[in-house]
Amino acid sequence: MDIIIAVFEVVLPFAFIAQGQKTVPSSVAAMLIGMVPVFTILFLIAFFKRKSTMPEITSILFGFAGIVFLSWPTHGFQDLFNSIQGNILLILAAMSFGLSLIILEKLNEGSSVIHMRNVLLIASAMLIPMSLVFEQSYELDIERSQSIYLVILGIFHAGVVYALFNRLIRQEGALFTSFSNYIVPVIGMILGFFFLHEALSIQQLIGMGVIMMSLVLSDEKIIKKLIRK
After folding, report:
1. H-type helices in the chain, by residue range?
2. For residue range 4-38, what is the model confidence (pLDDT) as tens digits?
3. Rounded to whole angstroms, how far apart are CA atoms 145 and 161?
4. Which one of 60, 92, 112, 150 has the fewest beta carbons within 10 angstroms of its own beta carbon?
5. How many CB atoms sit inside 10 A of residue 17's CB?
6. CA–CA gap between residue 20 and residue 34 (Å, rounded)
7. How far is Cα 20 from Cα 85, in angstroms, rounded to an integer?
């Protein structure tokens, strides 16, 4: 099971994203990767016979609408169709993430840390030879500061995040966890505003508001409380 997760959660999507983003603007990439919850619920319905509620479907549509509004390309439809191949690769990455979330949900036994350790070790065993063959990574001249950044990313972006990710899936399920793809750009823009003094446009504020509304709609308990009031 860990091998399958390593392939669909790490190896395939990151390879697709790295290649796809070479020809696709970051705004378009954000929208396409934002389709992870959409594919997650489609896979659950089609292959795992899971019945989805109206609040779940509504929240997914709201969240994706927020992502589209948040990261709509500056050149509109022109950016969307500039690279069909890149778009396909990013969509495949979103599909791979969605499938891996469902498989992760099936890991009911064992430690979250141990499972994620195994997944990352297996993924590394696959990616390191691939980088040597296809990217000639041994020729890269990495500065000391870049090495420190890589270590930080490895510890927090991979190690800590994946362990928390696995715990969240066990507690709330794959579908709810997939909503993290909606939250990431919101947190990124907020941090950029406070620490990098980046401006926030009205369009971005509306998009973030729609995304936060989708998270509220995803929780049936909150909806019931609002209805009672």
Report:
1. 2-5, 12-20, 26-33, 36-47, 54-70, 77-80, 84-105, 112-134, 144-152, 161-172, 174-177, 180-195, 202-217, 220-228
2. 999 999 999 988 988 888 888 777 788 888 889 99
3. 22
4. 150
5. 22
6. 15
7. 7
C-alpha distances out from residue 51 to 83, 133, 140, Å: 35, 44, 49
Residue 191 burial (C-beta neighbours within 10 Å; 0-12, 13-18, 19+): exposed
Residues in the chain, overall count: 229
CA 127, CA 133: separation in Å to the nearest integer?
10
Whether residue 210 contacts residue 216, with contact meaning beta carbons closer than 8 Å, is answered with: no
User: pLDDT per residue over 143-197, tens digit each?
Assistant: 777 788 888 888 887 778 888 888 888 888 888 888 888 888 888 888 888 888 8
Rounded Cα distance between 202 and 100, Å, is 35
